[in-house]
Amino acid sequence: MYLGWDQHYMIKKITDPATIDKTYFLISATAILLPISMIIWARIFKVDTNKDYKNYLEKETKVSGEKAVFIVTLAVSLVCLFFTALMFFKMRSIPLLDLILGRGGSLISAERIEISSSTQMNPYIRNLVVLTFTPILSYLAYAYALVTKKRRWYVLFFILLGASVLIKTYNFAKSPLAFYIFAFVILYILIKGSIPIKKLSIIIGLCIFTILFMYFRNGFNFEKILDIYNGPLGRTLFTQVGTLFLHVDLFPQHLPFLEGRSFSPTILSIFTDGWGHFRSGFVAMHFYAPEKVYQGIAGVMNTLFVGEAYANFGMKGAILSIVYVGFVLKSVLLLLVKTKKTPINIIIYIILTTLLVNATQGGFTDFVYNSSIIFSISFILLIKFSAKLAEKYKLLEKLNLEDKLK
User: Fold this and answer.
1) 364, 353, 254, 345: which is closest to 306 by C-alpha?
2) Residues 236 and 213 in one domain
3) CA distance 183 to 62
4) Which residues are listed as membrane-spanning (predicted)?
5) Are residues 151 and 247 in the same domain?
């Protein structure tokens, strides 16, 4: 885009040519300051993260109270699977099957928005119990299956894996399923220490196939597969970063800076006097694509986290956000290498990694307060403490479950 490749539909929406230079500076600053801030953070604590991470991978994963953890995980999984089945029942369809069978066609974009905003099910149950907790349970089951090699964990894992695949495609989105699958690579490496190239190639190929298959079933013309402005290439090279250009173009030339209004309603209710909540991606979509909003096929213009920081606090805020995010990301790695290597701790790291990676393309405010991270980690810790209580009071023996688990 900086070199003049400007025929993408996002670029054509830019109203001020100076936006190109300004955004290019922001992206360059991110590429430079993000790793520098991470290095400084490690040196402040006098930690050699490369050495510590290598040592961590070589450690054996410790497991305690595995039977109690399995019982608690199984009980919670049954609840999550019940509500997953209920969600699809109320939707009257399974979107992945619609894609496989070629149903939906040109209406998929509208259906995706309608499904995401559906009120057929309590949003807290849908967003937490179904969309968040079920995939986390599949990671947990996989971790214990790798470590213990016990059949019961593998059976539970494959059931949760199937449910999670359906969940990750519940609104026809293309990337969530690929990201969900790839997280197993991180999980495998942390437990086993490394991953064979063959397995890694298979997983990467599966992720690519998944995205291409969903493009195909969404009606994409594969004659344009190598067109850099359309399809997977256009999405990768232009669309995601194009929304960053539009953030810089929009504020403050057309609208005043949001001045913190993108923070969650919880934060705003504590520190402000009734401020309205506006995510910058939502505002940008309504400004640059009102016709799509009217047609019901528009979502939000999410982009690199500096976009939301800029929309709220200007250029100085965007620069400071880069340093802050670098500190957060490095702290997560420091947390991993300094904790005991157990399946539960590894899953906490997976949760932090996946949700923060999503936040880099979702918005800066998610690095300040992220309810998904809080609820997800609390959920895993609740499983851990419940299992400890079950062991302490010998509930497995009292319920005659000890022999059945052998």
Assistant:
1) 364
2) no
3) 21
4) 24-47, 68-89, 124-146, 153-171, 177-193, 200-216, 318-337, 344-361, 367-387
5) no
pLDDT attached to residue 166? 93
Do the beta carbons of residue 302 and residue 363 sit within 8 Å? yes
| pLDDT tens digits, one per residue of 116-160 | 555 567 888 999 999 999 999 999 999 999 999 999 999 999 999
Distance CA 103, CA 217 (A): 8
Within a domain: 400: no
Exposed, middle or buried by CB within 10 Å (0-12, 13-18, 19+), for 394? Answer: exposed
Across residues 10-14, what is the average pLDDT?
90
Q: What is the mean pLDDT of residues 158-177?
A: 89
110 and 236 in a single domain? The answer is no
Pair (214, 240) in one structural domain = no
Pair 164, 135: CB distance under 8 Å: yes
Query: 354 and 277: one domain?
Result: yes
Q: Note whether residue 315 is domain-resident.
A: yes
DSSP 181: H
What residues make up the domain containing 169? 64-219
Mean pLDDT of 88-103: 81
- 288 shares its domain with 348: yes
Q: Tell which residue, 5, 122, 137, has the closest CA to residue 70.
A: 137
Instruction: State the CB neighbour count (10 A cutoff) for residue 332.
Output: 13
Helix (H), strand (E), coil (C) string for 355-367: HHHHHHCCCHHHH
Task: Decide: 305 and 363 in contact? Cβ < 8 Å.
Answer: yes
Domain annotation covers residue 375? no
DSSP, collapsed to helix, strand or coil, labels residue 159 as: helix
Q: Model pTM greater than 0.85?
A: yes
- Write the CA distances from 92 to 21, 267, 321, integer angstroms: 48, 37, 43
pLDDT at 74: 95
Residue in 332, 337, 334, 336 with CA at minimum distance from that of residue 359: 332
Task: Specify whether the CB–CB gap between 301 and 285 falls below 8 A.
Answer: yes
Token code pair at residue 119: 């009120």
- Residues 109 and 250 placed together within one structural domain of the fold: no
Residue 51 belongs to some domain of the structure: no
CA dihedral 225, 227, 230, 232 (to 10 degrees): 50
CB 306 within 8 A of CB 31: no
- Using the predicted structure, report yes or no on whether residue 320 has a pLDDT greater than 90: yes
Going by C-alpha positions, the residue among 58, 62, 10, 4 that lies closest to residue 285 is 10
Q: Nearest to residue 19, comparing CAs of 234, 236, 241?
A: 241
